[in-house]
Amino acid sequence: MKPEAAQDSYNERLLFGLGLLARLSAFFLLLFFYGAGAFYAANNGISITGNDLQNYLLDARNLVHHGVYSRFPDPPFQPDSFRTPLFPLLLAPAVYFFGISGIWIAVLVLDVFLSGIGIYVYRLAQLFLSKNASFIAGLLIVIWPLLAYQTNLLEPDALFVFLFVYVIYRLVRFSRTEKTTDLVLSAVALGLSILAKPVGTYLIPLLALWIGCMCYRKLKIATAVRHALLFIALSSLVLVPWVIRNKIVFGVAELSSITAYNFYAYHTHDFIFADESQPIAPSQVREPERNLSYSSQYMHVVLQRISHNPIGYAGEHFVGFIRNLVANDLSAIYYLDHAKIIPFPYNPETKDPWSEFLKYATQFVFVFVYLAIGSLLWKVRKNKDLYYTLLLFAFCVLYFTITPGPSSNPKYRLPALPFIVILFVYFCEYMKKTPKTRPVDTRQS
Questions:
Q1: How far is CA 224 from the centre of its chain?
Q2: Could you tell me if 169 and 396 are in contact, meaning their C-beta atoms sit under 8 angstroms apart?
Q3: Do 110 and 151 contact (CB within 8 A), yes or no?
Q4: pLDDT (0 to 100) of residue 94
Q5: Which of 244, 241, 240, 257 has the alpha carbon at shortest distance from 71?
Q6: What does the DSSP 8-state code read for residue 155?
Q7: What is the pLDDT of residues 385-402, one digit of tens each?
Q8: Which residues contact 418 (CB under 8 A, 6 or more apart)?
Q9: Angle at 410 between CA 114 and CA 200, to 5 degrees
Q10: Which residues contact 227 (CB under 8 A, 6 or more apart)?
């Protein structure tokens, strides 16, 4: 093995080991302080109530034991479209063989698998950066406390982050090598990530547009269009079976009812107006606001609310965007009642000096990081290949912090985190070099 390849292998194994150590630390801390129920927000043996964190586990349980994909904890187990199916399908084998009480085994398996995220962050960063800088980027991701913690919860946020990093890694490789294999793997991984969390749905045409633009700069327009359409087709093909299932069950060819529900129940709740018309569903339908058959009706109400006060809603959405950019990760752990795993006293509700310091320090650090990233983009703008790729990273940051709307939660920023880290590490490496030795986009994969 060549020395360079040996160094890469060593770095990747080290990143994997450190990532696994971080995730196992969170695993055993949760198990010690709260019991196995902590993995699905049922601390210290509290019964399953059907809260949002338990939806995926219930979908898996009901699929295994009742033959229906349903998130309800008790009969009637009506079909569900609220949660997309990838994560429940991954949990189903553990539920089948070990039951709910043995679901911790599935969490351990996920910890091992998702520890590999540092490897792909390292490989992605190496397309631009030195080995040392790439290793630092991978290291920051694998030891990031919230991501390690989130990996141990039975919801697909960490899985989505892993898949999306892989999507962008393959996509950037394709923009350099023009190997169809990279394009195909990227498209399939994007489809799987959407089946994990539908937040990535709108990225299909947006990433296809980026592919077309990058290919158009090097190839004929017909080839660029062909590559973009292939990406759209393959990503969409992964989603087709689930969309067909929803069409058969609910009469609607869509992925999920979660968008309509979030807008109706959360994003526009403060904009309810007098004489607002409400959808009417049969009494036997459980939680019609989460039922895909009625999503279009609830979205109609949402649009009415926004049309009554578009400026007010735009302001709320912008505030949510800013909060997601600078949110303190510890609050996500605190509000799931897992504060005991934080190694120091923390309570954002009391506004004690320490918690307030952490809040404002976090905001300051993130603001500095974003200003550094903006400066980097300006400095490399003349190197078009590099600029457009780093612009893609910056777009991903904006996408994942804007799409949650007025709602704010540090976990919403997690899919953007690898790109924030890579961009900032690139900025640091760029600034420490002299103009003649600053990193440029000349590597091939």
A1: 28
A2: no
A3: yes
A4: 95
A5: 257
A6: S
A7: 889 999 999 999 999 999
A8: 117, 121, 124, 137, 141, 161, 165
A9: 60
A10: 183, 211, 212, 215
**Residue 322 neighbours by CB under 8 Å, 6+ apart:** none
- The whole-chain average pLDDT of the chain stands at 92
Which helix (H) or strand (E) segment holds residue 434: the answer is: none
Three-class secondary structure of residue 22 per DSSP: helix
Q: Is the pLDDT confidence value at 247 over 70?
A: yes
pTM of this prediction exceeds 0.85: yes
Residue 285 per-residue DSSP state: S
- Between the alpha carbon of residue 103 and those of residues 37, 179, 345, 380, the distances in Å are 9, 40, 30, 48
Question: Does residue 439 surpass a pLDDT of 60?
Answer: no
Which CA distances in Å does 131 have to 5, 11, 124, 143, 387?
11, 9, 11, 18, 20
* Residue 264 DSSP symbol: I
Q: At what angle do helices 86-98 and 180-196 cross, to 10 degrees?
A: 70
**Cα gap 427→347, rounded to integer Å:** 34
Which residue shows structure tokens 């992964």? 238
Angle between helices 353-379 and 384-402 (to 10 degrees): 150
CA distance 163 to 366: 24
Q: What does the angle CA 15 – CA 109 – CA 99 come to, to the nearest 5 degrees?
A: 165
Q: What is the C-alpha to C-alpha distance for residues 132 and 350, in angstroms, rounded to an integer?
A: 41
Sign of the four-CA dihedral 402, 407, 408, 414: negative
Q: Are 54 and 40 in contact (CB under 8 A)?
A: yes
Whole-angstrom distance, CA of residue 170 vs CA of residue 186: 5
Question: What radius of gyration, in Å, describes the C-alpha atoms of the chain?
Answer: 22
d(Cα 233, Cα 237) in Å, to the nearest integer? Answer: 6
What pLDDT, on the 0 to 100 scale, is given for residue 352? 85
Distance CA 351, CA 290 (A): 35
* Displacement of CA 108 from its chain's centroid (Å): 20
Identify whether the C-beta of residue 256 lies closer than 8 Å to the C-beta of residue 82. Answer: yes
> Which of 46-50, 51-55, 245-249, 354-358 has the least mean pLDDT?
46-50
Percent of the chain with pLDDT over 70: 97
Helix axes 310-326, 353-379, angle to 10 degrees: 100
